[in-house]
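Quiz preparation item.
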């Protein structure tokens, strides 16, 4: 039974292989446009060079790195975002424009019909 399932799965053609999806340029990717607020969890749309927090030293924050909004400098436009490791220690904290961030959602806000 297992072998027949494996053969069946292997025979399914992939319309859009994962490799092709990952090769799309950043500017063509679609990100959620929901308003970002204080304490929201966000991710970077692009890599950013910054100084390590709190002691300095240059580091590169990669695209997709997850952080938390801790200050809203210019409402809806510029946010102070803290990036921390699994141990909870912050390694970077910097002001970032809203267009360089996208809001992460951890639950479905509302159910919409798909037509």
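Solution:
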């Amino acid at each position: 039974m297992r072998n027949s399932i494996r053969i069946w799965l292997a025979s399914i053609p992939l319309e859009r292989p994962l490799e092709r999806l990952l090769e799309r340029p950043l500017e063509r990717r679609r990100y959620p446009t929901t308003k970002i607020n204080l304490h929201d969890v966000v991710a970077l749309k692009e890599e950013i060079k910054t100084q390590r927090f709190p002691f300095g030293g240059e580091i590169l924050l990669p695209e997709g790195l997850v952080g938390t909004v801790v200050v809203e400098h210019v409402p809806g436009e510029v946010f102070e975002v803290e990036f921390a490791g699994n141990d909870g220690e912050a390694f970077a904290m910097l002001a970032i424009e809203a267009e360089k961030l996208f809001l992460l959602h951890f639950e479905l806000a509302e159910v919409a019909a798909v037509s």
